[in-house]
């Protein structure tokens, strides 16, 4: 099958590749770029495990063709650490608040939470729960994920973290 040349910015780096029209973005990221942080769960746009940030939006990459991302600016979980290699506020929050168990949903959760905090830097617990409602976790019951995002929001805003989630 004929391949299409695409370029994009991924985690700040300019990349290019040849893809078939049917190639999904999640497969391009994982197989061509070896960025395996975004996971493949349902492949039907339900679970959110494949979520990345694309052009300022949370995108489920199992339902985007790689050719649709031509020219896009993408951030994956691999690009979420601070420039000095330390954990970002969200990564630290998930660690400190035990926001993960098996970790399968975690990259997608963090990328979704990243966009949520960009759009709403001081969300209520309800806004967090609604904001991550497109991402499924089969382990945690969500409570500690909510706490992790509250922790990160407080750290970013320089306010005191209070464990509001019950
Ligand atoms: S693998 Fe993309 S939403 Fe589940
Ligand atoms: S930590 Fe296991 S699915 Fe979320």
Write the layout of secondary structure elements.
Elements (H helix, E strand, L loop, with lengths): L3 E7 L2 E7 L5 H8 L18 E4 L2 E4 L12 E3 L13 H8 L9 H14 L5 H7 L11 H15 L9
Helix pairs in contact: 2-5
The structure holds FE2/S2 (inorganic) cluster (2 copies).
One FE2/S2 (inorganic) cluster binds next to loops.
How is this structure best summarized?
Helix content is 31%, strand content 15%.
Outline the structure in words.
There is one protein chain. The chain has 166 residues and is α+β, with helices and mostly antiparallel strands. It has five helices and five strands, in the order ββαβββαααα. It has a five-stranded mixed sheet, sandwiched between helices. Strand 3 and strand 4 (57-60) form a beta hairpin. The longest helix has 15 residues, at 143-157. The N and C termini lie far apart (53 Å). The mean pLDDT is 96. One FE2/S2 (inorganic) cluster is lined by residues 100-106, 137-140. One FE2/S2 (inorganic) cluster (FES) is lined by residues 40-43, 45-50, 60, 62.
Chemical compounds bound to the protein: FE2/S2 (inorganic) cluster
Number of helices: 5
**What is the overall pLDDT average?**
96
| Strand order, largest beta sheet | 2-1-5-3-4
Amount of beta strand:
15-25%
Which descriptors would you attach to this protein?
single chain, 166 residues, alpha+beta, 5-stranded mixed beta sheet, binds FE2/S2 (inorganic) cluster
